[in-house]
Amino acid sequence: MFPHSLFPLSLRLFSLRLLGNYRKKKSEVDRYYQYYESAMSTTGYAYAPIMLNYNPLHCLPSAEDLPDSDDEPVDNQLQHLIPGLLEAILAWLWANRMDWFFGVDMGIYYDPELPPIVPDGFLSLGVERVFDENLRLSYVLWEENVMPIMALEVVSHRRRGEYTSKKKLYAEMEILYYVLYNPQRRKKPPLEVYRFVNGEYVLQPGNPVWLPEIGLAIGYERGIYQGITRDWLYWYDAQKVRYLTPEERATAAEQRAQRLAEELRRLGIDPDVLS
Which residues contact 171 (CB under 8 A, 6 or more apart)? Predict the structure, then answer.
């Protein structure tokens, strides 16, 4: 099983409510059997009891029953662009893999009676990448049975608990990596990568930071994305070489084609005729 399949501690975040419902049903069954035993001792007749096959998970709402958003708009365009770029790079790197999912501004339901927590981005491994053509509405833990391995928060001018309540909840859920990017920082590094160790998050040094369970490193550097020049978050390999973005790959392919066409013309061959 993948290392971050739903941990027992994480299950306890909502299992108490399930257990409460289960015990309620069980008490009804117990009362029925008491009535059955009393009737048999009084009349001498045995009435066949109705067997109740009860699964507490059947009480839980599905993704289709739950809101697919917390209806809270992002504070900054970067909160959408940065995780979107990471997802786009993964989609190329892992194009042949169907065992991962990267959510952007999507709710993670961890308790059926509480609103979801909504990271700016999160990564899960060991899950179906695509359910059906309608894709995921939200990420429901009691359906997925796999805890995300990484949560990403992009800090804006208005704090949303990234350093406090959200960090605490991610730790209670035992999400292995908590990535915090604060582009407004000047005196401290803007990127913080925490690893869950012995019940708490421990800051990992370096830029980029290697994430062995994922097989990638995450870091930041200056680049261009959608025509915007600034620091962006990127994925890196084990040698700290940055993976190209889809735009960069398209540009590189176009430049190779141009160089090839120029070489053919130098040799007296018209590349337009070949095509």
Answer: 178, 196, 199, 200, 201
- 199-216 residue pLDDT tens: 999 999 999 999 999 999
Please write the tens of the pLDDT for every residue from 243-259. Answer: 999 888 877 777 777 78
Mean of pLDDT over the chain: 80
Contact 108, 130 (CB under 8 A): no
CA–CA distance, 65 with 61 (Å, rounded to integer): 6
Percentage of the chain lying above the pLDDT 70 cut: 71
For 8-66, the pLDDT digits (tens) are 444 454 444 444 444 444 455 455 446 545 545 555 544 444 444 545 555 566 555 55
d(CA 107, CA 169): 14
Question: Residue 209's Cα: distance from chain center in Å?
Answer: 19
Contact of 64 with 136, CB cutoff 8 Å: no
E strands in the chain: 100-104, 108-109, 121-125, 139-140, 150-154, 177-181, 191-197, 200-204, 209-211, 216-225, 228-236
**What is the arrangement of strands in the sheet containing 228-236, beginning at the earlier edge strand?**
209-211, 216-225, 228-236
Do the beta carbons of residue 235 and residue 218 sit within 8 Å?
A: yes
73 forms beta bridges with: none
Query: Which residue in 125, 174, 177 sits closest to 151, CA to CA?
Result: 177
Other beta carbons within 10 Å of 61: 13
- Could you give the C-alpha distances from 123 to 12, 55, 120, 203, 267, in angstroms and in order? 22, 29, 11, 19, 50
Q: Is the pLDDT of residue 86 over 60?
A: yes
Cβ contact 73:213 at 8 Å: no
The position carrying tokens 């108490």 is 16
